[in-house]
Design brief:
With 454 residues, this protein is of the alpha/beta class. It has 15 helices and 15 strands. The strands form four sheets. An eight-stranded parallel β-barrel has the order 1-2-3-4-5-7-10-12, surrounded by five helices. A three-stranded mixed beta sheet has the order 6-8-9, covered by helices on one side. A two-stranded antiparallel sheet has the order 11-13. It is globular and about 55 Å long. It binds 5-hydroxymethyl-3,4-dihydroxypiperidine.
Length: 454
């Protein structure tokens, strides 16, 4: 085993990941309804450059070309998401057959190429009609999500995908309903924590709908950022623990431990009475899964800081008295994120130690963001090299990691950062929609070929 070619078990899956709103475009085609992101993109100042997902990478019309790029990379799997507003334009009721057809065509082509689908059911594009009725703040949305999951399962199960219920519920609750940076742009305390709970409940209600045939593989994807105290002070240690609760444990503990962490009350008790929790919810949320999807990008170096809102009862759920500190002397990505592959190994080994019943893990996202059009993206190559080595170290330490998906196949709509931030292995010229593989594409292709896992 060399640094460049650390060992992976036979059958280890290599893939790339994307999501519907970030690449598809075609927002008005074949009966698709509006999502909260269509609405949010129209709010002045919400998205850099006033960008929208209206056209994005035009993947809806160019998916065959994109699948050829995937095949050229030599991956065995592709993770994409289904757009709920294509399937149920109002988020409820009869399915829109034309919306489902797109995914059937995509899956047919993937089958021809021998690429295994990992299908995410919710990657943040909530139908606007459901937001108008309260969005994830209300319990009904969890029920609607389970219905939608059942519809997609019945339509697409024949292609035998791996099912991922949610992508990063932290972002679709805290970033979206507390921090206000993502759609629908709310800044709330109780509402954001209710959203987090209802997302997890939606996951729990969806799992049995995805297991009607037997043999299905069902999981969830959480984003995790280990929280490191910025100094040796007890104040910073406490800040790191609050940060860890907000981003990580609020989600991992109910899913893998069947209970919310005890410090939820202490940290959030002033902004919510947790009345959105009901008997039986945790049994649903904590039901066994077939795999866990981990998205890892960076560690958070947390320092104790004054709360933005002095009145505890008026705080948002994001306001936990923590300041994120950039570590001195370290490598920083083009988006200002610390590049610390050790954090990925730490997350994997830590999870396995804390949850002995942890199912097999797939790293369902990991990637490097930057600005600009550089095709010789050596920063990304270096990031991928380090993080893939970190996965190999976790495997060597005994963690059952079965796959690695790079975010992302293509440059795409990076949410509030718009198109200026690029994560792709393949460059997209948004004027012409020309795709050009970057140095990282060629590096990863060679890395996969050298792994001997196919
Ligand atoms: O682009 C996002 C993706 O949608 C979810 N995970 C993080 C990526 C990079 O920010």
């Amino acid at each position: 085993m060399t640094e460049d070619h650390p060992a992976f078990p036979p059958g280890f899956v290599w893939g790339t990941a994307t999501s519907a709103y970030q690449i598809e475009g075609a927002v008005h085609e074949n009966g698709r309804g509006p999502s909260i992101w269509d609405t949010f993109c129209r709010v002045p100042g919400a998205v850099a450059g006033g960008d929208t997902g209206d056209v994005a990478c035009d993947h809806y019309h160019r998916f065959q070309e994109d699948l050829r790029l995937l095949a050229g990379l030599g991956v065995g799997a592709y993770r994409f998401s289904v757009a709920w507003p294509r399937v149920q334009p109002d988020g409820r009721g009869e399915p829109n057959a034309a919306g489902l057809d797109f995914y059937k065509r995509l899956l047919d082509s993937m089958r021809d190429l021998g690429i295994t689908p990992f299908v995410t059911l919710y990657h943040w594009d909530l139908p606007q009609a459901l937001e108008d009725r309260g969005g994830w703040r209300v319990r009904d949305t969890a029920e609607r999500f389970a219905d939608y999951a059942g519809i997609v399962h019945d339509a697409l199960a024949g292609w035998e995908p791996y099912w991922i219920t949610l992508n990063e519920p932290y972002c679709s609750s805290i970033t979206s309903y507390a921090e206000g940076r993502h759609a629908p742009g709310a800044k709330e305390g109780h509402g954001a924590l209710a959203a987090a709970h209802h997302l997890l409940l939606g996951h729990g209600l969806a799992v049995p709908r995805l297991r009607t045939r037997g043999g299905e593989r069902v999981g969830i994807t959480l984003n995790m950022s280990p929280a490191v105290p910025a100094s040796g002070s007890p104040q910073d240690a406490a800040a790191a623990r609050r940060q860890d609760l907000l981003v990580n444990r609020q989600f991992t503990e109910p899913v893998f431990g069947g209970a919310y962490p005890r410090d939820m009350e202490e940290t959030f008790g002033a902004i919510t009475d947790f009345s959105f929790r009901r008997d039986g919810d945790l049994e649903l949320i904590g039901a066994p899964l077939d795999f866990f999807g981990l998205n890892y990008y960076y560690r958070i170096h947390a320092a104790d800081a004054p709360y933005a809102e002095p009145d505890p009862a008026r705080r948002t759920a994001f306001d936990i008295g923590v300041r994120h500190v950039t570590p001195e002397g370290g490598v920083i990505s083009g988006l200002g994120w610390p590049v610390e592959p050790e954090g990925l190994r730490q997350t994997l080994t830590g999870l396995a130690a804390r949850h002995p019943g942890l199912p097999p893990v797939y790293v369902t996202e990991n990637g490097y963001g930057e600005h600009g059009d550089d095709l010789d993206d050596q920063g990304r190559v270096s990031y991928l090299r380090g993080h893939i080595a970190a996965v190999a170290e976790a495997v060597a330490a005994g963690v059952d990691v079965r796959g690695y998906f790079c975010w992302s196949l293509l440059d795409n709509f990076e949410w509030a950062r718009g198109y200026a931030a690029r994560f792709g292995l393949v460059h997209v010229d948004y004027e012409t929609q020309a795709r050009t593989p970057k140095a990282s594409y060629h590096w990863l292709r060679d890395r996969i070929a050298a792994s001997g896992t196919a």
